[in-house]
Amino acid sequence: MSLAQKLQQLTGSAPSVLPELPNCFGARHVTGIAELAIPTFRITNGPVGVGQNDCVSLEVEKARPAGNAPFFAPYTHPSSAHATALPSGMAVAASFDPRVATDFGGVIATEMNNLALHVFEAPGMNLARLPILGRNFEYFGEDPYLAGTMAVAETKAVQSAGIIAMAKHFVANEQETNRMTIRETVDDQVLRELYLLPFEMSVKDGKVAAIMCSYNYLNGLQACANTAMLTGVLRDDWKFSGYVQTDFFALKNTVPSLAAGTDHEMPTPLYWSPDKIGAAIDQRSLSIGQIDTALERRYTQMFKAGIFDRKLVQTPIDFVAGGKAARRIGTRAAVLLQNNGALPLSPTARSIALVGKASQPYAQQAIAGGSILGKAMGAGGGSSDVVPDYTVSPVDGIRTALRDLGRGDAVVKLVLIDDANASATVDGVTVPFAKALETIGASDSVVVMAGTNAEEGADRATFVDKDGHQLATAAAAGLSLDWYVAKPSAIATTDPAGNTAKSSQTGAMLNAILAARSTTGVAMPQKTVLVLKDNASVAMDPALLGPQGPAILETWFPGQEDGSIVADLLFGRADPVGRLPVTFPVAGKGFLDEIAADQFPGVRDAGGTFQAVQYSEKLAIGYRWYDANAGGKCAPIAGANPCVAFPFGYGLAYTRFATSAPKLAADPRTGGYSVSLDVKNIGPRAGSEVVQAYVSLPESADRLRVKQPPKRLVGFGRVTVEPGATQTVTIAIDPAASNHPLGVWDGAQHRWVMPSGRYTLWVGTSASPADLVEAGRFVR
Question: Taking every annotated instance into account, which residue ranges of this chain make up the domain Fibronectin type III-like (predicted)?
């Protein structure tokens, strides 16, 4: 290859028509070199399906501005090639089942091959440190072991079909606010034990072919020029043999990034343009050998995936098969949080009120990340947007299910209530709110839909003024069902003409519904279901909890099959078998109610040029923060945490289970352990239970600088049991596994160590102490 050819291959190409696919105008590819038999290399976004990809309408090119002005339309245009809009990554994590992640990755890989695409920019595995993080729905929750387990399964499924998976965003990329410039300080031990762990599992167990470096600065270095991470951790410590690509427009320099271990700039040659690289070579600050290494790393993965061996040929996507898979995944991800008798919906119900806010999309259309009321799915503007072939609305899903069940005579009324709770529409007819409550009270079943919409580009409840200056954040408000903006992908503003933050008064609406007069002989809480469609967790109003509250069903962002997924669960055609991958706090008592500005959104430096964030909570994120009583207000009462509405790992079913006493066994041959217990179905129908294992480390672990949380998840197992039957669940704990279940990072020795002393193993059905029993202890 000539130097010019090498430099052309080092970066993405400018938006252009693909030579092998003249029907595609694309902006996510490296144009091939026909005389060298190098194919055009095509990339698509993720992680919740084949997102914005390298094929938009040829008409888009006509909108190219004159001269050298930026041309962004091809990156997010809604004419992007259609694909199946799957449930969110958070939903996949909620399955607590790697087989669901495998199915998820299988749909994506099949459709990528249909579209002749090569690189899937996913899985995303940043942690839900902040429950309001705008991209939480793309990720796998608050626990690194769960996130890594799901990422490994998805990666293997994707790469087994000849597609390159790209783990992202590396690393400590846990907020969207100021994401391009944010300076984050994270203790090295905390990085290893939390934020790096899912990536380590993906490299060692998933053999992921590529890593995406992120926008943020970490411990003083920009992510794509961070030698300590890209060379020291990835390649020296983990022996990663793949290549590193930048997030789009993430590169900030020329020489330091290539020298640090970044291999591919996307989407176009900006810092790695021929003139800048050429000048660096002339000045001997870069060598041609470094360019060769970067290309060899990527070409090696392309050869492994068979990309050099297949022509760019597109074939039709089987949207029916994709839809069926999406529906299966969505039902296996739903979490039943509370049930006062309303679920499954009564088989004798002949009138159903479907209730939502008129200003919100949840009861009116299928929901994915960034859904905007009245706009087609895929128009949110974030990189995870998938343009589906069809969607199923909640009303259509419920009505279709009723017909399938032979109950076509049942009446479904759509009740949409204004933000002020003053007026409403019932099937499009305007009525006072009091009249709407009469309709709701007279219905046999009431289904209320609400949620916390989010998207790339913004965190919920962060603000700027009309001049774009960052304002103090009311972070905890972002977990409320009331808070919303018209465009979830943009930071909220105090300017009334902008993306103004608003209150839907959903909480007050729910309270009014529960207090309404029921005229069907069944009390309102016993016939009302709150269906949540969430980015991550919700801060729960105590008024909704317990016998006075509704049944609560969490369905995350269900994607294109929203209406079908929710209807399957409401009518009991599918059992809600998911478990929470995030903690649901009680309103006013959560992590976000306690954090300081330097934890989020950050504080400005003396010159006012950037904001800095301290991960000062260290290892205490998610359930670990609540376990440790880090805020000083969450000491357990009778085994239950008063700050937690629904704990990590929690979920009910349409049946009931009983478990035996666990048995802990040591394997002297391997040095590992296993814990077993029996799960008996004592209810009326088949169902699934998820048994979880947590370990408490010895006190000596705290001597390695960072205090350990009371426990960490080290294993889980799902079992499906028929009524009256019993199944045994066995969870193995391998101290040498890539998730280091018994390990602590010793920075002084630069290695993982197992603290000496007594370890305690806990087994149960959630992270709550009330749901756990001691399985045994061992000393090392």
Answer: 689-767
Whether the pLDDT of residue 225 is over 80: the answer is yes
Whether 173 is in a domain gets the answer no
User: CATH number for the domain including 528?
Assistant: 3.40.50.1700
pLDDT at 545 over 90: yes
Q: Which tokens go with 122?
A: 């996913």
As a whole number of angstroms, the distance between CA 328 and CA 568 comes to 10
Model confidence over 682-705: pLDDT tens digits? 999 999 999 999 999 999 999 988
d(CA 337, CA 579): 9
Residue 464 has pLDDT above 90, yes or no: no
In this structure, are 547 and 672 located in the same domain? no
Number of compact structural domains in the chain: 2
Among residues 522, 549, 583, the one where a domain terminates is 583
Tokens of 36: 């060298």
322, part of any domain: no
- Residue 379 Cα to chain centre, angstroms: 19
Backbone angles phi, psi at 155, to 5 degrees: -60, -45
Q: Let me know whether 575 and 706 are in one domain.
A: no
Instruction: Determine the structural domain holding residue 346 and report its residue range.
Output: 333-454+504-583
Is residue 466's pLDDT more than 80? Answer: no
HSE, side-chain direction, 13 A CA sphere, residue 282: 6
Q: How confident is the model at residue 498 (pLDDT cuts 50, 70, 90)?
A: confident
556 and 431: one domain? yes
Q: Collect all residues with Cβ–Cβ distance below 8 Å to 654 and sequence separation of at least 6.
A: 336, 343, 344, 572, 575, 576, 683, 685, 687
Q: Would the pLDDT of 310 be above 90?
A: yes
- Please report which helix (H) or strand (E) contains residue 205, including its range: none
Q: Is the residue at 287 inside a domain?
A: no
Do 574 and 658 belong to one domain? no
- pLDDT for 533 equals 98
**What does the pLDDT look like over 371-422, one tens digit per residue?**
999 999 988 778 889 999 999 999 999 999 999 999 999 999 999 999 999 9
Are residues 53 and 80 in contact, defined by beta-carbon separation less than 8 angstroms?
yes
684 and 568 in a common domain: no
pLDDT at 91: 98
Mean pLDDT of the chain: 96
Averaged pLDDT, 41-63: 93
- Among 583, 598, 619, which residue terminates a domain? 583
> Is the same domain home to 663 and 567?
no
Number of C-alpha atoms within 13 angstroms, CB side, residue 732?
Answer: 7
SS3 732: strand
DSSP per-residue string spanning 121-184: E--B----SSTT-TTGGGS--S-HHHHHHHHHHHHHHHHTTT-EEEEEEETT----TTTTT-EE
Q: Confidence band (pLDDT; 50, 70, 90) for 84?
A: very high
Q: If you count them, how many residues does the chain have?
A: 780
Alpha-carbon distances, residue 618 vs 188, 601, 739 (angstroms): 10, 16, 18
523 pLDDT band, cuts 50/70/90, is very high
CA 283 to chain centre: 44
How high is the pLDDT of residue 378? 87
pLDDT, tens digit, 9 for 90 and up, residues 702-728? 998 899 999 999 999 999 999 999 999
Q: CA–CA separation, 321 vs 228, rounded Å? A: 44
Angle, vertex CA 756, rays to CA 752 and CA 758, nearest 5: 120
Show the tokens assigned to 651.
């979920």
Structure-block tokens of residue 73? 């339309």
Find, among 448, 440, 446, the residue nearest to 519 by Cα. 440
**Cβ neighbours of residue 419 closer than 8 Å, sequence gap 6 or more:** 357, 358, 359, 502, 503, 504, 505
Tokens of 488: 């979830």
User: For the whole model, what pTM was predicted?
Assistant: 0.97
pLDDT at 437 over 90: yes
Decide if 537 is inside a domain.
Answer: yes
DSSP class of residue 600? T
Q: Could you tell me which residues are beta bridge partners of residue 476?
A: none
